[in-house]
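Hi team,

Filling in the usual template for the complex we talked about on Friday. All components are listed, including any nucleic acid strands or ligand strings, so the model treats them as one assembly.

SUBMITTER: L.P.
PURPOSE: interface mapping
COMPONENTS: two
RESIDUES: 608
SEQUENCES:
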Amino acid sequence: MEKFELHILGCGSALPTTRHFATSQVVNVRDKLYMIDCGEGSQLQFRKSRLKFSRLNHIFISHLHGDHCFGLLGLISTLNLLGRTAELHIHSPKGLETLLAPMLSFFCRQMTYKVLFHEFETKEPGMIYEDRSLTVTTIPLRHRMPCCGFLFAEKQRPNHIIREMVDFYEVPVYELNRIKNGEDYVTPEGKTISNSLLTRPSDLPRSYAYCSDTIYMPEIAEQIKGVDLLFHEATFANADLPRAKETFHTTAAQAGEIAKAAGVKKLVIGHFSARYEDENVLLKEASDVFPETVLAKETLCLEV
Amino acid sequence: MEKFELHILGCGSALPTTRHFATSQVVNVRDKLYMIDCGEGSQLQFRKSRLKFSRLNHIFISHLHGDHCFGLLGLISTLNLLGRTAELHIHSPKGLETLLAPMLSFFCRQMTYKVLFHEFETKEPGMIYEDRSLTVTTIPLRHRMPCCGFLFAEKQRPNHIIREMVDFYEVPVYELNRIKNGEDYVTPEGKTISNSLLTRPSDLPRSYAYCSDTIYMPEIAEQIKGVDLLFHEATFANADLPRAKETFHTTAAQAGEIAKAAGVKKLVIGHFSARYEDENVLLKEASDVFPETVLAKETLCLEV
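RESULT (copied from the run log):
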């Protein structure tokens, strides 16, 4: 299986503590790194997770609250000091470029590389990134300001050729691409060789969904149905449900409900309120609803 | 002795590493906290050092490079979330308020407290803070942009009254303030009682000097003569002297020279370049010139 991993850089909420950094994650898909959110200290946690800046070309910002983007200036500045030349793409809801521009032009005067901002709509799901093997689609969320989660989905890869069978039927090289993509082979004598004899199916495409920050939104289960890994915010415990509603956040049990309704394989919860010294209360409440739940923590790495 | 301590929150230079945070320190004078510089992650280190935000009212920024001020937004934002009401004063060279204003007004919409910016001249030393027991004076430095260090000096405190002697001579209460401040006492019979019989001298005033970032400036020895503790940047080792000059930084040996010429009691060096895995090379080079040298490190606390 090719690499598809999630690195947690920070999983605290608005108030950083001695236990948690502000929100940031890195998704590693076949050694291309994608950052999701960039709270203060993300560049430090990035290094601590032994990730390579040169592999990072895209950053996705869920919404414009400080605990999700105050680390951008430091990161951009560090990449400049390191002499980066590759473009860096930052995807976010409207307004980020305008906000950062004066600081960037003052603090990063002679840029060795370009930072390109891409603003996305937050009302409807939209594909905001695509390459040969991956798509990233926004997941509209409901928070105190425009906010989206992100769905990272591998594309279905072509079938694997069974070398021995292809040799046996003397299939010409120029036919191989068609066969990889599922077509049968017709010999010069007109005999049809079924594709299933010539190929093995490739691995099933995997997917990862990131949902933070948001009030409980059961309707997102539809969009994230069957993902292999779901990160969902679980800022509060059941006892603080009124506070969760008021601040447009989710409880751990509600995160479990979403995971269950969506039939995901695994749930990782994070964005913990600073009030919980021991997050096991959150783990228990989510696990009671959806047993395959783990707690996020700094430098944790999960396979998708 | 009343409290006068230095807490190192971060002592790396422009490129943060897994070993060092960007520059920030806290000076604790009788439980009032003064922050010097505020690199990314300073609020995290502040908590880790078990300091109290409620005791912090003044922040001094040496110059407007990101590694000395990118932590301000996160800190200001956190204090707001905590419901702070006391004013926060930020002292810096010109330009900081203008730079931060758009970000502050977007990210900290409903402020529970006021942030007041005070801009200082960087060419001549100037007293920028004073209270009953302390003054803070700028130390003009030479860097790639306007930059100042800071001299924290305790004021001479009044003498201590010797209770037994005052009772013996039946000194009236209204005379005590004059006597504390060094005057003799004249009895109703016209006899002069020497002040030295009535008081013990108070502790000598202590002082701390912070000098970072700067090219080697032997002339600052004059202004920081005899300080109890000197923090001086020592970004580079001797072998990288040309790089130090080029980037307007100091070597460890040069920091030692300054400490020696100023006759300080103790030198702490920091602002280490990321290139040194082992900073003992810097410690050795500074100690060879000035033996009373220690290396800064995160969460280190030194008595002044």
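MY TAKE: The radius of gyration of chain A is 22 Å. The longest helix of chain A spans residues 96-107.

Thanks, L.
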